[in-house]
Design goal:
The complex is a heterodimer of chains A (341) and B (132).
Chain A: H1 7-26, H2 31-137, H3 142-176, E1 186-189, H4 190-200, H5 202-205, E2 211-215, E3 221-224, H6 226-243, E4 252-258, E5 264-271, H7 278-283, H8 301-312, E6 316-321, E7 327-334
Parallel strand pairs in A: 2-4
Antiparallel strand pairs in A: 1-3, 4-5, 5-7, 6-7
Helix pairs in contact in A: 1-2, 2-3, 4-6, 6-8
Chain B: E1 4-6, E2 14-18, E3 23-30, H1 35-51, E4 58-67, H2 69-87, E5 92-99, H3 103-112, E6 120-126
Parallel strand pairs in B: 3-4, 4-5, 5-6
Antiparallel strand pairs in B: 1-2, 2-3
Helix pairs in contact in B: 1-2
The chains are: A alpha+beta (341), B alpha/beta (132).
């Protein structure tokens, strides 16, 4: 038995036709009008059948369109995933490249003091061998001995200062790689930590008469790394003391914290010193960038600050400066440091 | 009588009724937001045209590629009006175009021609992208 969607309509039409035949007998005048009615109903039924087909076709088209949409969505997802992988690979390559630059910089920096120490040690060894030979021969003179003492004293001093310089560079380099695991995380009061850090820096600040103002509400509590924050502030202060006031005048430094009601802390550090050129400003966070090459600058201080803010505090840092306009560092970081990257 | 020209939009078809030559054409896609607003003027013009005792043969090109249920009913009404004119003695031809591989559109054309006895109805297969 076949299924007919329009069985009821066909049955009604069949009954109407039979009714028409009966009507032809009893009321012949009505037959034409009645037949028109039946034809209109027949046509309406056919139109209904067509509309059902149109509707089914539309539904099928919609289904196909949805399938196509889903297929393209998955393609886009796959493409996005590939893109993320590629991005990750680029970041890793970039990290390796910057690590390579770091290692090259470290090698270059350490090479100078170590090279000097090696030359001095070699010179001292030569002088010592010469003196021993004279001593063995029994022909050593008072002058020979005096010259040797002068040489030994000079070379020992040079070896010591250059080895100290190398050790200092290595200490700085170790700080570049922040050991986040060893940094202690806890809840702490921001104003208190800032004050304590500045107190520890007083021996450096006091002789030159610089003042540091801290503008921070006493109520700001952080869930973060106080040691990291302390090191950031110390490096910023040392950077300002080294560069901002070459004329020896007493400067004013300001640490200001605002927008304390939000989840992001905004901390600025500014000085009223000599400022810097745009070229220098753009490179200030680069490792080994220093304007004091050969005069004690390692070019790592602000690079370490940048790494600590971005890496450990998950924040950001920017710097504004112009010659004669002072310098201002703006730091933003979450009040509660996120657990993971 | 002036011809009726409505350019296609995203949801409504192009309507080109050149009444002087008797060439009528609807093409594109048809799923208007308000079927009465769009097709009302089309029916008014067509009804007025068919009411004239003009003997010019009528040729209707049905080139819709996609239409919703309301538009399907519109098409059936137009075909019925053309059938009435043809029955009254005016030569009317209808060409139902469908794209390659669109079997269901071809079947709809056959279905829609079921009630046409006086209209010369034909199906036309066109390459994909040739109309619209």
């Amino acid at each position: 038995m076949s299924f007919n969607l329009f069985a009821a309509e066909e049955l009604a039409i069949e009954k109407a036709r039979k009714l028409g035949e009966a009507l032809a007998v009893v009321a012949p005048d009505c037959v034409d009008d009645f037949n028109e009615l039946v034809q209109a109903f027949e046509r309406s039924t056919r139109e209904q059948q067509r509309l059902v087909r149109v509707s089914d076709r539309l539904q099928a088209q919609l289904g196909a369109a949805n399938q196509e949409l889903e297929r393209r969505r998955q393609e886009a997802e796959t493409a996005l995933s590939h893109l993320r992988d590629a991005q990750e690979a680029i970041i890793q390559a970039e990290k390796l490249a910057s690590l390579g630059a770091l290692v090259a910089g470290v090698a270059h920096e350490i090479n100078t003091p170590v090279g000097i120490a090696v030359s001095c040690a070699s010179h001292l060894a030569d002088a010592t061998r010469d003196l021993r030979r004279l001593s063995d021969d029994g022909s050593i003179s008072r002058g020979d001995f005096a010259r040797y003492l002068a040489t030994a004293g000079d070379t020992a001093t040079l070896i010591l200062t250059n080895c100290q310089r190398a050790a200092q560079l290595i200490t700085g380099f170790k700080q570049v790689a922040v050991d986040r695991a060893s940094a202690e995380r806890r809840r702490f009061n921001l104003a208190k930590t800032l004050q304590e850090t500045l107190a520890s820096l007083q021996p450096k600040l006091r002789p030159s008469g610089h003042t540091v103002a801290v503008l921070c509400p006493g109520s700001v509590e952080l869930d973060s790394f106080p040691g990291v924050l302390s090191q950031i502030l110390a490096n910023l202060v040392m950077n300002a003391l080294t560069h901002a006031f070459p004329d020896g005048r007493a400067g004013h430094l300001v640490v200001a914290v605002d927008q304390v009601d939000t989840d992001i802390i905004h901390l600025s550090f500014s000085d009223d010193g000599v400022g810097m050129t745009e070229d220098n400003r753009l490179r200030v966070f680069e490792p080994f960038f220093t304007t004091r090459r050969g005069r004690g600058g390692t070019g790592l201080g602000l690079h370490i600050v940048h790494n600590l803010v971005v890496g450990a505090l998950k924040g950001s840092i920017s710097v504004q400066s112009a010659p004669g306009q002072g310098t201002r560092f703006d730091l933003s970081f979450p009040r509660q440091t996120p657990e993971r990257d | 009588m002036d011809s009726l020209n409505i350019p296609a939009t995203g949801r409504t078809p192009a309507v080109a009724f050149d009444f002087a030559s008797g060439h009528l054409r609807m093409s594109g896609e048809s799923y208007p937001d308000d079927v009465a607003t769009f097709f009302g003027p089309v029916f008014t013009a067509l009804r007025a045209y068919l009411a004239d005792a003009d003997p010019t043969p009528i040729h209707f090109d049905m080139e819709l590629l996609y239409f919703n249920s309301s538009s399907a009913k519109v098409l059936m009404n137009i075909l019925q009006m053309l059938e009435a004119a043809a029955k009254a003695g005016r030569p009317v031809s209808v060409v139902w175009s469908y794209e390659d591989n669109d079997e269901s559109m071809r079947e709809l054309g056959e279905d829609f021609s079921e009630d046409l006895q006086h209209v010369a109805f034909s199906l036309r297969n066109v390459p994909v992208g040739a109309i619209g």
